[in-house]
Amino acid sequence: MSERVWQLVDGFDPLIHVWDSESVIYDRFSGNTHLLDVLSLRLVEMLANDGMSENRLISTMADELVVEVDDEFFSYIQMRLDALLKLNIAQSPNV
Amino acid sequence: MKQTHNLLVDVLLTPSLVTDFSNADWDLLVRQANHSRLLGRVDYRLADKQVPEGPAAHLEAARRVTQRQRQAVRFEVAQIRHALAPLGVPVVLLKGAAYVAAGLAPAQGRIFSDIDILVPKTRLEEVEQAMLLHGWVGGHHDAYDEEYYRNWMHEIPPLRHVKRQTVVDVHHTILPETCRAKPDPDKLMSAANPVSEHEDVFTLSSLDIVLHSATHLFYEGELEHGLRDLVDLDALLRHFSKDETFWDRLIERAAEMDLRRPLYYALRYTQRILQTPVPDATMRAAAAIGKPPTPLAWLMDALFGRALMPDHSSCDDALTPLARWLLYIRSHYLRMPFHLLLPHLVRKAIKKRFSPVQADVPKLEDN
Amino acid sequence: MNLDALSVEKLQQKLSTEGVIFRTGPFTVCLQSPIESVARGIHLLYGQYPLVEAGEFVDFYVRLARPRGLRRWLKPQVEFGFDGNHPFKPLPLVQAFPMFEWTFNWCIANHMHRYLVVHGAVVERNGMAAILPAPPGSGKSTLCAALVSRGWRLFSDELALISLHDGQLVPLPRPVSLKNESIDIMKDYAADAVFGPSYLDTKKGTIGHMKSPLESVERAGEHAKATWIVMPKYASGVEACLTPVSKAKMCMLLAENSFNYSLLGEAGFKILTEMMDGCESYRFDYSHLDDAIATFDALEPTAE
Fewer C-beta within 10 Å: chain A N or C terminus? Predict the structure, then answer.
């Protein structure tokens, strides 16, 4: 389990439009547009007010989806967090 | 001299003129403004005026471009700060980026290309390294260009971000070291003001912003944007002179920073062309310290008078191309020793850098 | 009065001197050119477009002429002048008319930011429009030409103009540009249509133009709402098949295939997402034009 803390990138200022299981996000700060699946979008929403540890993100998500936190779920969420990192939406600064 | 129809300046000075405009007038206004890069400014000045459909589309387009540019500048400045803050290097924003950061009038309706920053010369190498680390790379310049920038100019070669393709010019003073005029960069930096959102990012003091703008205009050679730069200057002067002590302090600072001549030109031409309300006493004081000998002054009037017109054929007379050419030569003469000037100009001519670079015709993929 | 009220000779004479001002869709162009093939091309393919009086507001000042300099004797070329500026390198003189088409596209895509300009074709029927976004290899222009010859109204074969004010598509009926085999295919398929000369372009093959149907030009003032986004994919021997694509994915595709989406920022995002709300998106695989027409004709808007 990881104690990494995640937060949204400084200045991130999104407009969100959702269709079924996908969404498009426009960041008013960078001018970039991204496609996010609903899970990734939910992660962004959870981080909107404050940073959160990776553990807490995963357990909260598991509760919402009513699933077990197993290795598969764990890496599923981690993949999405890494994708958000690459898109410059989320960051995980050194503690 | 051919009758020139400087609708652009007329409208910038008196926006209400457009209420009596014919379609042909609108047509000429938009063309002149486009060529002079002032369409966004015209849009800003006509914000509360009725504009017919045809020109309205062009004004709207210019407005969207400038809005997007302001957004891009803010974002880019944040990225620069992110890259340089860990070094503890004070970063002073210059020109367009400064106007946006400080919310100054020239930011309204203006199009920027590069972002210009000023850093201490002693920290230049660190800054270059940090910028490189964060994705801004030097262009592929040949050895001559590299030397030209580093030794003779006042900046390192422009840095371009690999992903965003945005360009940052890193300066260590505001005029090339080869210039006879030597404004002290330390004085500029110690008078700089922090920008509200970030304490480690600064803009020059109001006096220095004006002097830098004047210096940039009257020392630079590529005057296609001369009128635009003059319009910026006019906006800055009108804004800062709301403080009555501004004019006297400006004269003092120009003397202190060795920038008497550009200040003289700035006040003279903004007043003559854009009717900037420069007090008589200030004009006399500026002339006393900065006016060139009479024959040169007459020549400069003839040259700048033409070069500061809108860069459109409707405003040219027979002497305009020559005037622009002479000012171009002059700007190089001012910036480098004579023995270097001629080979440099020859080299530039060979590289065809004087004429704009032509791209391939963009053909959409037909299928 | 339309352009073809002038004879070719008179048109050429005007083009060589003060220029000719005419309207295409929402744009007014002043064209000057001493080049004969330009006069002939304009007369043939823009004949039904209205002439505009001098003294009106002009959107684009275009000049196509031979560049000055010694090269004019060695290798005949044509250069694009944009109100005195020359942003592009010259092309071989024989390509003067296609150059008008290419540079006119550039004028619009680079300057008309009251529209979201997407690279794609637009056709319309019964007040409902289909956008055909166009990555290369899609067969978009051929399909567009075919639809237009079978009763669909031509909005554009290259530039979908989406108004930032109301999200509607704005017609820009112009010659449909065709490449290589498509030219002969369309000459067969649309026996009544008018075609311009073919131009050999050594880089991309042969190019030809099909004149816009008259009705499309006459109805250029009638806007329409986008109802379908159909991404065509031509492949030999394939059965005509519409596959739904998610709105989010199609939205991103349109943004990527747009000239000015990035520049428009928030306004572009809003208008695009709103448009997607009201559209169905498909990928369309096909090989036979008749099957394609039948598929399009059968498109019905789903009740939302």
Answer: C
Q: How confident is the model at residue C134 (pLDDT cuts 50, 70, 90)?
A: confident
Across the B:C interface, residue pairs with CB atoms under 8 Å apart total 102
A28 interaction partners in chain B (CB closer than 8 Å): 71
Bridge partner residues of C228 (DSSP): C130, C280
- CA distance linking residue C124 with residue C194, whole number of Å: 21
B121 within some domain = yes
Cβ neighbors of C187 (< 8 A, separation 6 or more) are C193, C195
* Residues of chain B found within 8 Å of residue C142, distances taken between Cβ atoms: 367
pLDDT in tens, A6-52: 999 989 999 999 998 999 999 999 999 999 999 999 999 999 988 99
Spatial CA neighbour of C270 closest among A5, B103, B64, B242 = B64
Are the Cβ atoms of A24 and C248 closer than 8 angstroms?
yes
Cβ-based neighbour number of residue B138 at 10 Å: 15
What is the CATH number for B191? 3.30.460.40
> Chain A: residue nearest B68 by CA?
A31
Q: Is B1 a domain residue?
A: no
Which residue on chain C is closest to A30 by alpha carbon?
C265
Substitution target in A20, A33, A35, A39 with the highest count of C β-carbons within 10 Å is A33
Provide long-range contacts, Cβ within 8 A and 24+ apart, for A55-60: A55/A1, A55/A2, A55/A3, A57/A6, A57/A81
Give the structural domain span for B286: 7-350
Q: Is C154 helix (H, G, I), strand (E, B) or coil?
A: strand
pLDDT tens per residue across span C6-29: 999 999 999 999 999 999 999 999
Tokens describing residue B280: 């008589």
Q: How far apart are CA A41 and CA A21, in angstroms?
A: 10
Task: Check CB contact under 8 Å for A31 and B75.
Answer: yes
- Asked if residue B358 belongs to a domain, the reply is no
- Across the interface, of C57, C87, C134, the residue whose CB is closest to B358 is C87
Predicted TM-score of the model (pTM): 0.91
What's the number of domains chain B is made of? 1
Do the domain assignments include residue B52?
yes
What's the ipTM?
A: 0.94
Task: Tell me if B367 and C99 make a contact (CB, 8 A cut-off).
Answer: no
On whether any CB of chain B is under 8 Å from the CB of C139, the answer is yes
